[in-house]
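Risk register update: the risk that structure generation would not scale has been downgraded. Supporting records follow, first protein first.
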Amino acid sequence: MTSLIWQRARSGRASRSSLRGAGLDQNASELTFANRGPFSARLEWFSLPLLLVLWQGAAMVAASRFFPSPAVVAAEVVDLTLHGHLVKDFAKTLLRTFLGFVVAMGLGGVLGFVLGRVRGLDRLFGPWVVVGLNMPAVVIAVICYIWLGLSEFALVLAVVINKTPLVITTIREGVRSLSPDYDELAAVFRMPMARRIRLIHVPQLMPFVMTAARTGLALIWKMVLVFEVLGSDGGVGFRVGIFFQYFDMAGILAYTVVFVAMVMLIEHGALRPLERRVARWRQDPP
């Protein structure tokens, strides 16, 4: 058993060395460098300025108070920050999003791992997961509000119920794709289950965990805003609902711009560096 694993490993190293000897590895490196040149690496920095230019042009063509320009929206952001409720509303929405995200990822990760490893439980509770995936989010929010009242607990619980089935599905598929060779190696060395999960299962599951985190965070943001519109005493969704009643497009776009900026900050400041860090083990050594 172990000889088979080590033979595969040696054959993989031999194939890589043969590629290097044939010069294919150098060509691949040159092609990768060409695709990641200085110009292509900076294209992302031109994305937002291009969007602002298009936005300004569309606002000039529309010439309507229902289509404010970027300058008007920027002034509205400053005014709402200094004299409005923008900071308090975003603090409430961030707290609700964080609580729902952490609970859904933890609960969904554990349940997904168990369902992926135990076939009988997967067959028994798999239909429950399908029902949860197809249950309308608004229906769950209304039911939680009716049963528990317009409270923070009801809002966070509705978010967790909506998000957890998606995490379960993603992690379950990741567990099913685990390499059996590593399990055989762990069995030969008689590794304890806790050490096996930490050293073998978790590194292989991290791409699926990051996928669930990225898609889940995007969905939870939207869910929290919708649920705040339905019933809440504050938050981004609650304030946008008030702006809608007064047809205040400048206020709606001001909250939207700050919301998008916060999402981009989380994406580039937290998720991408974390993804690069957890995927370092997958890179072949030089």
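Supporting record for the second protein:
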Amino acid sequence: MNLKISLFLVFLGFYALVVHSQDLIFMKKDSTIQRAKILEVGIDIIKFKKYEIPKGPTFEIPKNEVIKIVYANGYTDIYDTTYKKTIKYKMFQKPDNDTSKFSMIYVLFYYGNDESARFPLSFNGKSICLLRNHMRLAYKMYSEGQLLIERKDGKKIGPSIKMIIQHGVNYGIYITIPNEYALDPNKKFAFKLALDVNTFLHKDYFGFDAFSSEELMLVEDRKDPVIIY
């Protein structure tokens, strides 16, 4: 058999293996599909890792916002056989009423008009997410204590900011670019702590919409806390 044909067949086999090694979550909003690795299907909540970032944060989504899950082995769980698009999409559960048990960290990344800009965000050395330009992150944290927030992209680390996180307190962080031409990440980017979180969350802050269900919302995994005593 021709060597090129053999290599092509090997590639197709590998590609098929990769494609079918993922779970698929069929969302109700716009009939979108989330590639994932399902961790747990509870009574009301589905926990999963995003397929693109298997070592990233754990996501949660209410089961009533999912049409079905198609697992990597082909098995399918159907949760809604009478789906109607009028049902409003929700990314995560609403915050607990008892705010003394957690804190909220809001992060805004602003890199001018360059929509290709990205910011790899980490908390205490743990990769949290890759922020797109103009993206806002709402992070629900159950642990408390000293938190190191930094840019971590392989061996390129910087800048960083240290904070003491306390339950019942909300924090607003603005990532800016004081010198976009600098090669050193510590000089290229900078963190600024918002003194008034309510103003930070307002829809007119920096001319962008307020934090909403369309923004990135993450919940700390209590079994793998960011802050360890």
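The chain has two domains: 3-78, 99-219. On this basis the risk owner (M.S.) recommends closing the item.
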